[in-house]
Amino acid sequence: MTTLDAAQLAWQTDDTGQLLPVSLAFDDVYFSKTGGLDESNYVFLSGNHLPIRFKNLKENQKFTIIETGFGTGLNFLATCLLWSSLAPKNARLYFVSTEKFPLTHTDLSLALQTWQDTPLKFWADKLICLYPLLIAGCHRLEFGQITLDLWFGDAKESFTQIHGQADAWFLDGFAPSKNNELWSDEIFNQIKRLSKSGTTLATFTSAGFVKRALLNIGMTVQKIKGFGRKREMLTAHFGDYYCFDAHKLSTSSQTIKTATVIGAGVSGLLTSYALARRGICVTLLDKTSPLAGASGNPKALFAPKITLLKDVKDHLPTVSFLYSQRFYQTLNQLANAEIFSQTGVIDFLLPHKKTHQTLKNLIDDYPNELICQTNDIINQQIPDVLKHTISAWIEKAGLIDTKKLSDFILSHPLINFKKFHAVTITETSQIAEVMDDFDNKICSDIAIICSGFESYLLDSQLFNPRKIRGQISYIQKTNLPNELKTPIKYDGYCAAFDDILLMGASFIRNNTNTDVSLSEHEFNLNKFNENIPTIAKQLNLKTCDLKGRASIRAQTPDYHPIIGQLFGKKRVFSLYGVGSKGFSFAPLCSEILAGLIFNEPLCISQNLLDKLSIHRKRLQTPINQNN
Ligand SMILES: Cc1cc2nc3c(=O)[nH]c(=O)nc-3n(C[C@H](O)[C@H](O)[C@H](O)COP(=O)(O)OP(=O)(O)OC[C@H]3O[C@@H](n4cnc5c(N)ncnc54)[C@H](O)[C@@H]3O)c2cc1C
Ligand SMILES: C[S@@+](CC[C@H](N)C(=O)[O-])C[C@H]1O[C@@H](n2cnc3c(N)ncnc32)[C@H](O)[C@@H]1O
User: Fold this and answer.
1) Which atom of ligand 2 is nearest to the CA of 174?
2) Which end of the chain is more exposed for a tag (fewer CB within 10 A), N or C?
3) Mutate to test the pocket of ligand 1, among 425, 583, 584, 593 (most ligand atoms within 8 A of CB)
4) How far apart are CA 453 and CA 574, in angstroms?
């Protein structure tokens, strides 16, 4: 699957005169003509005994539903409504759904018009607001305590990539006679893989082959009265008995209540935040101060590295950009501050060896809302753009204010910052202990190493990454040309904000010195002068007037971060090696790490997860630290 085909719809009216979408490809309705919401409630919610199961959940407990066809999202919305009225405030719902032919944003908005005068409106409006671009792969959308993972692509393929276990299944394809691939053995085998004892299932159909397939994978199946005019439907469950007691659901991670995170750069800050959002009490340590390392430049550029659209779903820079973009937008709302400024970014696509036509095709494949060719309006505003035969305009990109990000996270009531130089980490069967050189000790249920390029010093099994020194250069100047208001990415980048022009950044391998250097100012200024010559000429900047900040990146040989639980340890985890893309990678990677710790569904493919693993093969061979 490379690109997605959107659903082709016709519109009918249901028995009450409301609009009802019909699939032209499958010649079937998305939900019942006699009351779609009632059908969802009856077939899927009651069929899985969700009212009592939600009510019986305990604080902080999680519940996972997996669905086969997302369609208009009606089942999801009905579940949100039930969850919000019955589940404890801090419990978390994961709703994982697949969709091969997603509705366009316009069609989704129209389809959900039907629920404008019902209690679903609140959730429907949120879904319309967060609905992702039609790009294959997993899109994680947050609705407070409810997380929706929308896997765009064929369910058969997506299910092989999903990590997690369902508490309940919604089997909701079109009629089996019209949509056989959604009712195939591959799907039933994945249902088995993604279930556990106590998992339940409900579906509107009572087809004999569906019943046999469920029996074949080891489920106990019941035929019950169907919705409305339908005579029968199926419900099923795994295990000898079915139990409504929430305590019998997943409890393994219930014992983790406290965590120590070592390093308060963007990796440590966002890991603390991911844990705190899950109700964990976090002590965040730094030997110096928050943002003392590579994360402490005043602004970070937030823009994707572009790849072919067909490769996007396992391509960390794009997957993390899409995730992090939504994440930062949400932070802006929660913080009521501009942590992320969506300025848009112009990308000169340098350095590249591709032909003009290849680059053009690469950009043109994408939805314009994500990436398009820099248009004539921008070309005229910034004449230097014309110098490049092709460049990209990335509307959703921008700048992160690192201080505002840090301030917001540190204000979380469950995150407590402490200046502390960690030297050793040990674990017992009960706790993880982090110690400094003076025998001061911090104890918690788990410890997480997020110490950038120095992470490997805290445990001998951790990979010693390439250290790459980088320096930004900046100058304070009033009346900076308006053209610079849009950050520009070349084989470096420049960005203007608050009367400051910032230029980045040098790359010096195997150097951990952090003194500011004149030669690196020259390097940054030369790149600026070469790439933006017209504006550079007007500004006529001098190296000696520049100020700077130098720090150290931690780079792995395959350019992927290191995420996971240390070998042979139960209580020690790590996230580092985010290279030169920390502000894109850290929001997603910290969410993945938290998901692994708490055995939650993950919002990336198994293929991509393997590329990030702390145990991956490439990390078994040390790198030569001298070249
Ligand atoms: C010049 C430059 C420009 C960059 N520009 C961008 C950009 O525009 N956009 C972007 O996305 N990325 C950019 N990057 C990359 C980005 O800054 C990094 O990927 C990111 O900051 C790494 O974050 P981190 O939290 O993993 O590490 P760090 O930010 O280095 O944090 C590690 C922290 O751990 C602490 N620590 C270490 N050891 C211990 C210990 N034993 N005990 C307690 N604390 C400890 C350190 O004091 C430090 O604060 C740039 C990097 C450089 C160098
Ligand atoms: C009956 S509709 C689902 C209705 C939906 N649950 C709702 O609440 O609106 C079935 C959905 O399955 C999707 N579908 C069909 N074949 C699929 C496949 N192979 N993989 C993923 N989704 C598929 C269809 O595009 C359609 O959206």
Assistant:
1) 1
2) C
3) 583
4) 12
